[in-house]
Amino acid sequence: MWLDTQAQGRAVPVLMPNQCPHRGARLSLGTVKQDSDGNTLLRCGYHGWQFGASGQCVSVPSSPQLAPPANFAVACLSTRTAHGLVWANLGLKHGATAPTFDIPRLDHLPARRLIYGPFDVATSAPRAVENFLDTAHFAYVHEGWLGDAAHPEVPPYEVTLTDDGRPCIERYQAWQPRGSASSQNGEWVDYRYEVLSPYSALLEKQGQTAGPKDAYVIWACPTTDTTCRLWFAHYTDDTDSTDEALHDFQVTIFSQDQPILESQRPAQLPIGGGEAMAPSDKLSLAYRRYLRGSGVTCGVC
Predict the structure, then answer these.
(1) What are the extents of the domains in the chain?
(2) pLDDT band at residue 10, thresholds of 50, 70 and 90?
(3) Contact present, 216 and 232 (Cβ < 8 Å)
(4) Over the range 4-13, which residues count as b (16 or more CB within 10 Å of their CB) and which as e?
(5) Distance between alpha carbon 141 and the CA centroid of its chain, in Å?
């Protein structure tokens, strides 16, 4: 449950469990309001209990003289904003200063940024990330857009590792009939892939002729072992295409991916083996090894 409050003149998101401590009703059924001092409060829709940004109840309307004790509270979680999204550490309480949680730096990407999503997908977060990293499905899933059935071959590529063990492809080439919203003709496109974390990855791409540089990041949030919520961040130096055109292009591409993703069985990514692998799957294999080494348990089998 999100609650935007104010701190030093700016909005600060607060993440609360979606459950009132009084009778367990969903707080998302309540109302956000401000008190006479301008403080933002969340009022439960069941009995009207009001909670401040710290999670502490400040008012019980049925007992107006009561000073709510400390246990009349919800446990808010710590949040940060970065890359156009709000991040939460589900193990760090609101206001805590340690431990911190790391978010990848993306300072080298183009300044124009658009966020697409969220997309709720009936597959695991690792399945979604692996599809984002996949080099061999363009010709079939995205035929006429990112791929061409007349060019299904995957050129040889090498997987390298960052200093902290994250897989990368420094250069990969793909023939694309329409590699971006502004593309008019087919061309060879240079790709760079990098796994950012177990549930996120970056691709950078640019046509070998004139054209904009584009970068896409997938941020996958597991909702269960077999479902996830996705956001895509798009960084581009395309100054001609409208936000709507860029949005429509990416949504079209993902609408082609989603039915395939949701058809895969098991929905969890089998990092322990059991699926046949071709030479073009080197990055997928490296990603699965990385997940095993990271100790990830959600969304894998």
Answers:
(1) 2-93, 112-294
(2) low
(3) yes
(4) ebeeeeeeee
(5) 22
Instruction: State the average pLDDT over residues 147-172.
Output: 93
Q: In what order do the strands lie in the sheet with 200-207?
A: 112-121, 227-236, 213-224, 200-207, 187-197, 167-176, 160-161
- Measuring CA to CA, which residue among 42, 103, 58, 113 is closest to residue 78? 103
For residue 51, which of 32, 23, 38 has the smallest C-alpha distance? Answer: 32
Q: Which residues pair with 201 in a beta bridge?
A: 195, 218
What CATH code is assigned to 112-294? 3.90.380.10
Q: What is the percent of the chain with per-residue pLDDT over 70, rounded to a whole number?
A: 92
Q: Would the CATH topology of 2-93 be identical to that of 112-294?
A: no
- Answer yes or no: is pLDDT of 46 > 90: yes
User: Which comes out higher in pLDDT, residue 60 or 184?
Assistant: 60
Q: State pLDDT tens for residues 196-224.
A: 999 999 999 998 876 789 999 999 999 99
Peptide bond into 99 cis (omega under 30): yes
Just give the CATH number of 2-93: 2.102.10.10
Encode pLDDT of 263-281 as tens digits: 999 999 999 999 999 999 9
Largest CA distance in the chain: 76
